[in-house]
Every structure is written in C-alpha cells, then in structure tokens.
Amino acid sequence: MGGGNGFDPHDPPRVSGPVVDYGLARKVLISEVRRGVVATTDACDAHPELVRAGRNIGGEAAGPCPVCSHETLRTVRYVYGDELGRDSGKVVYPEEWLAELEAAVAEFTCYEVEVCTDCHWNHLIRSYVAGKGHRRVAQRQRRSGGA
Ligand SMILES: [Zn+2]
Predict the structure, then answer these.
(1) How far is the C-alpha of 85 from the C-alpha of 44, rounded, in Å?
(2) Which residues are 80's β-sheet partners?
(3) Nearest to 127 by CA among 138, 116, 140, 113
(4) Residue 133: which of 92, 88, 100, 102 has the closest Cα?
(5) pTM of the predicted model as reported, rounded to 2 decimal places
(6) What is the distance in A from the centroid of ligand 1 to the CA of 68?
(7) Given a cut of 90, is residue 1 above it in pLDDT?
(8) H or E element, residue 59
(9) Which alpha helices (H) appear in the chain, and where do they start and end?
C-alpha cells in the first residue's frame, strides 16, 4: 500500500491549482526520514514503473538523492488529461513530445517526479497545467514587442 507520499503513475494526486510546487512537502518528508519519524522503507517505495522510467529515460536531477546520497536521482514527467485520450498517464518521451502536446491539446496536467533508481526514493517536484490555452509564464514574458 506504500507510505502515501509516493507518486503512483496510475493514480496521480489531485492538483489544486495551475501550478503546484511540492518543494516544501518534499523538504518536510526528507527531514522526517532523517530524524527517523518516517521509515526509509515508507519513503522509498517508488512504483516499479516509475523506477523503470527513471532508469531508462529519466532526465538528470539537480543533485544527488536526498536519502541515499547516490548520483542516481532522475526526473520523470507524466502527462494526464481527458483530452489526451490514450496518451493520458504516459511518460513524456522524447522531450519534444511535450512541445507537440502543448501545441495540439487544449489542456492537460504535467507532473514532474523525482525518483532514485537505487533506493527508490520518489517525490513530486511540481505539477502544472499546460496546453494551448495555458501558455507558460516564461513564454508570455518573452513576448514583449507586441502584435
Ligand atoms: Zn536514493
């Protein structure tokens, strides 16, 4: 049943806003694991599919694994949404696929997850709504010249 913090590719958590940052929840959990409040086995219970995705196609993470300190931390992105049809719940690969979806689909949710392929630590980094109707802020800021 897992510890409840892990990311389940088949049952992603509900998103409460257009962009949700899980950095604080992640920090809290890491400190609880370090203090022994949460068992490592509970925190490091990554779904087998997530571990496989991290190992095979995961992107590089910002640093080492916060639990085992190995350089085996990877980031994986998943997309979900009714308008994605059969593609809902798939891992983003190759990277360009995300841009294609953003150009073709009106709205979907993207989840960025980190997973350690060694100790199986996993946590959501952030989630955001993307698609044709949801241009990302970075893109909007670049367009300063008008028309
Ligand atoms: Zn680890």
Answers:
(1) 31
(2) 109
(3) 113
(4) 102
(5) 0.86
(6) 4
(7) no
(8) strand 59-60
(9) 23-35, 40-43, 48-57, 96-104, 137-142
